[in-house]
Amino acid sequence: MHYIKFLHLSVLQQTDTMNYKLVWLLYLYGLTFENANAAINRTFPANFKFGVATASYQIEGAWNEDGKSENIWDHICHENPTFVVNQDNGDIACDSYHKYKEDVALLKDIGVDFYRFSISWSRVIPEGVAGSPVNQLGIDYYKNLVQELIDNGIEPMVTMYHWDLPEALQDLGGWLNPEIIDHYAYYAKTLYEELGDSVKHWMTFNEPKQTCMGGYGDGNMAPGYNFTGLEDYQCTHILLKAHAKAYHTYDEEFRAEQQGSIGIVMDTAWFEPASDSDQDKEAAERGLQFMYGWFANPIVNGNYPQVMIDRIDERSAAQGYAVSRLPKFTDEEIEYIKGTHDFVAVNYYSGTYAQWIEEADINDVSYNSDLNILVFPDDDWEDTEPPWFKIVPWGLGKTVNWIRKTYNNPEIFITENGYPDVGGLQDDKRIYFYKEHMSSLLEAILDDGVNVTRYTAWSLMDNFEWGLGYSKKYGMYSVDFEDPDRPRTPKASAAYYNQVITTRCLVDVCE
Ligand code: BGC
């Protein structure tokens, strides 16, 4: 479809009538009217939606108010303060629990179509377990937030789990205890019952890879366990079943009446082959399958990617394990998990080169040696403030093209994309980051026909950046964390994003 770009260039200076004819031509070629129009003008299609995202623990504060119980991030920050840079914690964070109306006003100023936020499980069901009491004050907070959004013409898009497990469930084994599947289903059902009349887009989990690998594999996230190559796989196995159960619960009991849609948010980097060799191409594909396919393949096709099954089975056997470290789904489970998505969501931040390497030492039990590729950046790629985070905008276009090809052209939501710095209101580099990423996305939509319908910027405002505390800032609004009132101030990127949303355009040609 690159010819469309060519046509675009050649007709840019022509008359409206000519454009009109071209729209027809492209329409006849098979594009929708909207996309044909957009292809000519290089604008986002009329039905494309823009939003911003946040997460409960990162912004809400009020960690022990109105009946909320402790969650695993409260716990680790309180019990092991050095887990986080500067011993920061989310006790108050942006204080959004008390300032949600102000936050909705900020969203309105930016002009977003939707707001992706997450619900704190321990605020809604403090004891965590199935059948335990629902905390009405916690539910009311989210009902009020949802109503405020709707009153302001902003669609609520809800993540049910963004890493803040009730500590009571962690005490029972967290994501390693299969009983959590029923606890999670009870929580999900409670949310559909209480909020499903107004919420039409649900996401069961945010970045399950971080829950399982960060929480149980490399230990960078709460609860901070390091059993890589074992517990990260066990956690995933249980979490995927919890996802599927929440999906089926919606399907069977709520969808007909509530008419919403439901999916899961998975993150990936783009893996670019380090050379044209078949081996490096294989390494890059393996990187994508281990990172994104680990979750996406079960959800779309019912089981882990074949390359994961083969490699982990083989290495486990050579290591003397009686069974593979990668647990097996039964045929029934495969059927149950398969197809549990109404859209495919992706969080994209950066990319890397991938190179084939000799097989790792067989005694090394880890996710990394199961994956066994070398990843490294190009010296020419630009840095963000943390130097390990390279700006690789074209990787976003390649990622969505890969998703289209690998998972049979699904509807795709970009559910996060954002840039960290250390502060400042004139955040030109964030503007550059957004512009380049949205531009890569626009090309994928217009030139390659990838079905991406939403873009979500991370984040509305600076917030608690997990292990990095408040030291790294992703917001379009700055928050003064020294001031008890947590005042918010717009950065230049807020006005820029508003301009993109208003014009649906990234470049000067359609301004
Ligand atoms: C997470 C966010 C986080 C962001 C920036 C994403 O992986 O979903 O919670 O703040 O990355 O690190």
Written overview of the protein:
There is one protein chain. By secondary structure, the protein is an alpha/beta fold. The chain folds into two domains: 1-41, no CATH class; 47-510, TIM Barrel (Alpha-Beta Barrel), CATH 3.20.20.80. It contains 19 helices and 13 strands. The protein has helices at 2-11, 16-29, 33-41, 56-59, 72-79, 96-110, 121-124, 136-151, 167-170, 180-195, 208-217, 231-258, 278-301, 306-318, 331-337, 367-371, 394-406, 428-446, 492-503, and strands spanning 49-53, 114-118, 155-159, 201-206, 261-273, 344-356, 373-376, 382-383, 390-391, 412-416, 452-458, 477-479, 488-490. Strands 1-2-3-4-5-6-10-11 form an eight-stranded parallel beta barrel, surrounded by six helices. A two-stranded antiparallel ribbon has the order 8-9. A two-stranded antiparallel ribbon has the order 12-13. Helix 17 (394-406) runs parallel beside helix 18 (428-446). It is globular and about 60 Å long. The site of beta-D-glucopyranose has 10 residues, from loops.
Summarize the structure.
This protein is of the alpha/beta class. The chain is built from 19 helices and 13 strands.
Briefly note the structural class of the backbone: alpha/beta
General form = globular
Q: Look up the CATH topology of the largest domain.
A: TIM Barrel
Q: Treating each run of at least 4 consecutive H or I residues as one helix, how many helices?
A: 19
Low-confidence stretches: 1-18
Major β-sheet annotation: 8 strands, parallel, barrel
Q: What do the pLDDT scores average to?
A: 93
The helicity comes to 40-55%
- Integer count of domains: 2
Instruction: Count the beta strands.
Output: 13
- Rg is 23 Å
CATH architecture of the largest domain: Alpha-Beta Barrel
Order of strands across the main sheet: 1-2-3-4-5-6-10-11
Cα end-to-end separation = 25 Å
Q: For this structure, what is the CATH homologous superfamily of the largest domain?
A: Glycosidases
| Beta strand % | 5-15%
> Which ligands occur here?
beta-D-glucopyranose
Query: Tell me, what is the CATH class of the largest domain?
Result: Alpha Beta
